Amino acid sequence: MEFWLDKIFTFMLTHKLVTTLLLLFVMLGIKRLIVRLVRRRGKKRAEDKRPAVNAIKNVSNMLLVVFILVLWSAEVQTLAFSIAAFMVAIVLAMREYIQCFTGFIYATSARMFRVGDWIQVGDHYGEVIESDWLSLTLLEVHMETYEYSGKTLNVPNNLLITRPVKNLNFLKRYSTHSFILTRDQSVNVFAFKEQLQEKARSYCEHFHDVALRYNNLIEKRLDVNISGPDPAIRITTSHLGDTETRITIFCPTDQAIDIEQKITEDFMQLWFASRDAKEPLPQPDE
């Protein structure tokens, strides 16, 4: 008996292809026979044997796969090493694409932004107009003027992982706009600071109530305190000794530059008026 078993195992190992075909034929035949018997019994008893038939098919298919893997185990192991080396080469060649896909999954799951939001990715600012698994499309926005540049930015999604991403959507409607006016120290700016602040407040008066509500909304959602809605003026000096007047206003984004120009015009008028009103220095006697 052992002699014949050794003969059978030797034949199976030396003629694997023939053994595989025989195994397929036998297993499929046994499966079909068992399924036929179960269905026939189900018809006689008027029972639904579809779950049993499905289980028999799944079990027989699994056993067939296991038998084939055991028979070809040595070849499968060699193939696995080859596939592993091939996959490593594929991963190295497509590393950037894999990172882009990972960045897309990360941004989608974290809900970092949606189409229409203003965002900052690294040094790039823009409005999101499209997002896919490979890249992010932005309409570039100049944050100094809050205007569209007309340029389209295609940002790879891997930057969403390797670069800071800021959602600037609150700036799309209202923004905390700051600008600096620099002059020499021939005039004391504190002398007309209250006048300048009053003029700045008048330019912001018509949207003050809306700005107050929007300011409170941002503070509530972000759980932080932000400047506004009243204009703020801070006077400092530069490293060269010039007077710097920093003005901060909380205003509609589309009106920020216009209000800045009005305040700048008032500042220049007050500055030159103060300079011209100063008495000339006494001249030394000859």
Automatic annotation (TrEMBL):
Keywords in alphabetical order: Membrane, Transmembrane, Transmembrane helix
Q: Where in the cell is it found?
A: Membrane
Main localization of the protein described in the UniProt heading:
membrane
Coiled coil regions in record: none
Q: Which InterPro entries match?
A: LSM_dom_sf, MscS_beta-dom_sf, MscS_channel_2nd
Q: Cellular component per GO? A: membrane
Q: Which Gene3D superfamilies match?
A: 2.30.30.60
Location of the Mechanosensitive ion channel MscS domain: 101-169
On whether Membrane is a keyword of this UniProt record, the answer is yes
TM region(s), chain numbering: 12-34
Task: Report the Pfam families cross-referenced here.
Answer: MS_channel_2nd
Q: Could you tell me one molecular function GO term of this UniProt entry?
A: mechanosensitive monoatomic ion channel activity
Protein name (record): Mechanosensitive ion channel protein MscS
